[in-house]
Amino acid sequence: MNRRELLKVAATLPLAQVTLSHHAFADTAWPERNITMIVPFPAGGQADLAARPVAHALENILGKSVIVDNRAGGAGGSIGNAAAARAEPDGYTLLMTLSSLAVLPEADRLFDRPPAYEVSQFAPVARVLADPTLLAVPASAPWKTLQDFVDDAKKRPGQIPYGSSGPYGTLHVAMEMFAANAGIKLLHIPFRGAGPALNALLSGTVQALASAPGTLKQQVDDGKMRVLANWGAERIPSFPDLPTFRDLGYKDVEFYIWAGLFAQSALPTPIMTRLREAMAQAVKSPEVIKPLETAGSPVAYMDAPEFSKFVAEDSARLIAAVKKIGKVE
After folding, report:
1. How many CB atoms sit inside 10 A of residue 24's CB?
2. How does DSSP classify residue 208?
3. End-to-end distance of the chain based on CA atoms, in angstroms?
4. Is 235 among the domain residues?
5. DSSP helix/strand/coil, 75
6. Could you read off the pLDDT of 160-212 as tens digits, one per residue?
7. Claim to verify: residue 147 and residue 122 sit in the same structural domain
8. Which end of the chain is more exposed for a tag (fewer CB within 10 A), N or C?
């Protein structure tokens, strides 16, 4: 039965049966056309790093183009997240986003703003990356160690500018978490994403940045930046000599920047199942593994059930941190 015939039959059925028939048709045919993968940041950040090789691999697996759509509207990724939340739950609009997904609605509530979206509108599909954030400064900066940085910041409260991907985005929360624990005040300069913030550090517009290893490694290897500390619980292979904040006595400073694929919570189960299968295949492909390993951010795959639990636990910790930080600009 073709689509026109199916719709004629559906018109004679009760509403529940119409809905079921429509989903059944869509489920068996998906994907019939190109898929859009929204990245709520400009190119150059962790979400974009994950999205591009994954999109290419999914194209080969699903047989349809997967178009990466960078929604560089700022607001820490809130604008792109909201656009994905409002999309039809038909599998043709996906979201590759970061851990700030859960933080941004809570930040809106802190300022008595209606949230642009709710986390409940999304269904986790797969985690792709999960890296501790690193504190980077220009290679020309006077600080050789984290203690140098802290000592200088205490002498000049509010005068050392740092960049972020926007208020309450991943890079902002990590830096404010550190600043609160160190008892220092820094100057927050928000950008439209991690890529522009990284460029600002390279140009000297800002003097510090929290970012993922994959977006920093080449710059550090080229001698353009220096890293002072690692927000993770352990040292990482791509920067084995870099101490953690815990190593340096900051026991409550721990932050990870993960990237994961999400769909709408109302996505029909058969499409979600096919998407999960495709993602499990994609993350094992050389076209995903090689570029991420080269960037210093190896695949950290989790399938939907495990990823859902991870998101819930990580979100609770980050929301608690945001409430502790309170209102900051």
Report:
1. 13
2. E
3. 58
4. no
5. helix
6. 999 998 888 888 989 999 999 999 999 999 988 788 899 999 999 999 999 98
7. no
8. C
